[in-house]
């Protein structure tokens, strides 16, 4: 997986993801947005994520964070802990960059992967696209999706096994929730991108990649603690998610995604930053709040009610009945 993104998007260059970071034990946290004042979204998500697989003790907190910091210094090892994408995906993304590529040829390439065919058909018949009649062929689906829609769909198909195909008690239990949040983050970030002056597809990629480091962290916890228990303290939760953010950015660089993607992931935890980081930060917050609200987590409804009108409109698009 390391090199195919480079062939699709051009050679990578050094990014902020390669620069030294502060220790994982003393992360620099951005202030919580005023719109979410009723709830610490990140902490609530952390505590909800593992469900019953949790404990209050902190005996292995330092060990877990030290191991994650070690992986962040050697992201190639971390990248090897997640699955690779289907071989047809890079071929299709490469074709989308070629001038004059016909819909017939794209349809032929999509048809090589039965799972991808099912995903494309399912996508175009979803409420998001609202076709006037059911779409049953690849050719009809591609006509409705368009190139940008197909690129985003392929990105989701590529990253789904990275997030959702996990082993280990904790990682396996958390995977469905993580994937759901990742999909909504990608959608929200891509929708927010034009307002921030960012590229929508890069925002989608950043949203899908954002949780890769957290997946690695959960797999590491399963290795450290065979019971897969997730420490629940606020200090551990914030340190874990900040270190996972750094790890996601460095894995994105290792995979040679477009350089702005890794930088956006790294900088989305801080106020300000480049347009793509701002779009991703909006996507992260709204997607996390959406899954917490859908799970009836206390305080989520109050936080949603505090959203500004423009963000509320975007938030409502993340409802399962809308996306």
UniProtKB/TrEMBL annotation:
**Stored Pfam families:** HDOD
InterPro entries attached to this UniProt entry: HDOD, RNase_Y/CdgJ
SUPFAM superfamilies reported in the protein's UniProt record: HD-domain/PDEase-like
Q: Where is the HDOD domain?
A: 82-271
Gene3D superfamilies named among the record's database cross-references: Hypothetical protein af1432
User: Looking at the record's lineage, which domain of life comes first?
Assistant: Bacteria
Which parts of this chain are annotated as the region Disordered?
9-33
Record's protein name: HDOD domain-containing protein
Give the originating organism.
Massilia agri
């Amino acid at each position: 997986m390391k090199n195919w993104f480079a062939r699709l998007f051009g050679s990578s260059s050094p990014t902020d993801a390669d620069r030294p970071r502060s220790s994982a034990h003393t992360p620099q946290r951005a202030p919580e947005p005023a719109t979410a004042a009723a709830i610490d979204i990140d902490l609530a998500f952390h505590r909800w994520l593992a469900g019953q697989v949790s404990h209050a003790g902190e005996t292995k907190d330092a060990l877990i964070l030290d191991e994650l910091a070690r992986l962040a210094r050697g992201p190639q090892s971390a990248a090897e802990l997640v699955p690779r994408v289907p071989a047809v995906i890079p071929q299709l993304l490469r074709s989308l960059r070629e001038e004059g590529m016909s819909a017939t040829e794209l349809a032929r390439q999509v048809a090589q992967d039965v799972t991808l065919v099912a995903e494309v058909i399912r996508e175009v018949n979803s409420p998001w696209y609202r076709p006037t009649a059911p779409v049953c062929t690849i050719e009809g689906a591609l006509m409705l999706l368009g190139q940008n829609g197909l690129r985003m769909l392929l990105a989701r198909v590529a990253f789904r096994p990275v997030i959702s195909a996990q082993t280990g008690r904790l990682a396996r239990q958390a995977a469905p929730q993580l994937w759901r949040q990742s999909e909504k983050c990608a959608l929200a970030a891509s929708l927010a991108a034009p307002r921030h002056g960012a590229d929508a597809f890069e925002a989608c990629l950043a949203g899908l990649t954002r949780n890769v480091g957290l997946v690695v962290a959960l797999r590491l916890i399963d290795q450290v603690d065979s019971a897969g228990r997730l420490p629940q303290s606020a200090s551990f939760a914030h340190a874990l998610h900040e270190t996972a953010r750094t790890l996601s950015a460095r894995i994105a660089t290792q995979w040679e995604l477009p350089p702005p993607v890794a930088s956006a992931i790294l900088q989305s935890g801080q106020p300000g930053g480049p347009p793509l980081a701002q779009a991703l930060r909006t996507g992260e917050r709204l997607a996390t709040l959406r899954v917490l609200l859908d799970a009836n987590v206390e305080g989520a409804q109050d936080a949603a009610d505090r959203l500004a009108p423009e963000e509320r409109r975007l938030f409502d698009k993340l409802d399962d009945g809308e996306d």
